[in-house]
Amino acid sequence: MANWIPLWLHKLSSPPVFYRFAGTLRPWAIALALVLGIVAMYGGLVLAPPDYQQGNDYRIIFIHVPSAWMSLFIYAVMGIAAFIALVWRIKLAEVVAMASAPIGAAFTFITLVTGSLWGARMWGTWWTWDARLTSELVLLFLYLGVIALYHSFEDRRQGARTAGFLALIGVVNVPIVHFSVNWWNTLHQGSTIRLLGPSTIASSMLWPLLTMMAATKFYYFASLFGRVRADLLALESGKDWVRQIAENEVRR
Amino acid sequence: MNPTRQRRLTIIIAVLAAVIIASALTVYALQQNMSYLFTPSQVQAGDATSYKTFRLGGMVKQGSIERSNDSLKVTFTVVDAAGAMPVEYTGILPDLFRENQSVIATGHMAGARFVATEVLAKHDETYMPKELKDAMAKAHAGKHIDESANQDKQQL
């Protein structure tokens, strides 16, 4: 095996080790997601001042924008996990990829719904076929396709690899969603937060947005770890380490 | 790396490369002929002649909004950096519609006039409190509005 991969990372890909690792981190992730989420909500809905054009209606960005970021971030994680699963056939990577799909689909759905609510008020329409909206809808369909393909196989691992292939191909849509507002004339506005160059948002509105971004990340990890743990138990149900856990549960 | 993994890696990278090239070409082609909107100067240059209905995008010219007294009919002029186009619309306008606001109107040409069936307000990516906006407006004496107008023009 290639020796540039550190040994601890190698060990972490073993199901029983990851099961314990995820079990330890999950409560912390849940707690951080809750605390940061409440702080961000308070900052966004109470502390942040109304916008100069949109008044209070702009406050939906504290849900919409972090969800949109997560919809892309989770797809990227799913794509990388699917790539590892396809080349190295690591069981954990398959499980991570397939457990990410429903969470990502949920965030994509929230993005589309909140964007639609905002668009009805600000643009004057619920939906329009511009490049950003259309590519985000394609992203939702990709997630749903991955979920459907995974569940259409009797054998879980076979299903994970086939769906992983679709997930991997769909990765090309991620930069299209992100850059659609620059590549085409769209109704959707360009990026407000820029990594390079100044952001066009007041700092009193920016910090709740970034806090919510952190909260959604922690929520994703909490949700992912829970799903992965359950899937690992089901997948390895005949193995000794699972039997051990089951016996301990019974004794308690 | 063992031969099986090596082979799988090669196949997957080849498939990925093919998909990326295919979608890059598609995106490139769509950039040429997938236009969500036309600007007034593009319409006047004849770019939109092949479409019966199309979207017209630009800024609402200052002082050009005229509302009818007895109906919902409203006329205004949409401008971009180089052109201007009179627009006629009957219906309810979105909240953000006003002078110097970017709008996107769907409709058709009737002579030199654009008859819109739908008018959408394009929002820019700037978010700031009202107090800050007022302070900036005082400091720049209206300069900021010109700046954001120019930004919108660049985007269109």
UniProtKB/TrEMBL annotation, chain A:
Keywords: Cell inner membrane, Cell membrane, Cytochrome c-type biogenesis, Membrane, Transmembrane, Transmembrane helix, Transport. The keyword Magnesium does not apply. Residues 17-188 form the Cytochrome c assembly protein domain. It is found in: Cell inner membrane; Membrane. Its main location: membrane. The chain crosses the membrane at residues 28-48, 68-88, 95-117, 137-153, 165-184, 204-222. Pfam families: Cytochrom_C_asm. Required for the export of heme to the periplasm for the biogenesis of c-type cytochromes. Belongs to the CcmC/CycZ/HelC family. This is Heme exporter protein C. It comes from Dyella flava. The lineage of its organism: Bacteria, Pseudomonadati, Pseudomonadota, Gammaproteobacteria, Lysobacterales.
From TrEMBL, chain B:
Keywords: Cell membrane, Cytochrome c-type biogenesis, Heme, Iron, Membrane, Metal-binding, Signal-anchor, Transmembrane, Transmembrane helix. It is found in: Cell membrane; Membrane. Residues 1-8 are cytoplasmic. Residues 30-156 are extracellular. PANTHER family: CYTOCHROME C-TYPE BIOGENESIS PROTEIN CCME HOMOLOG, MITOCHONDRIAL. Belongs to the CcmE/CycJ family. This is Cytochrome c-type biogenesis protein CcmE.
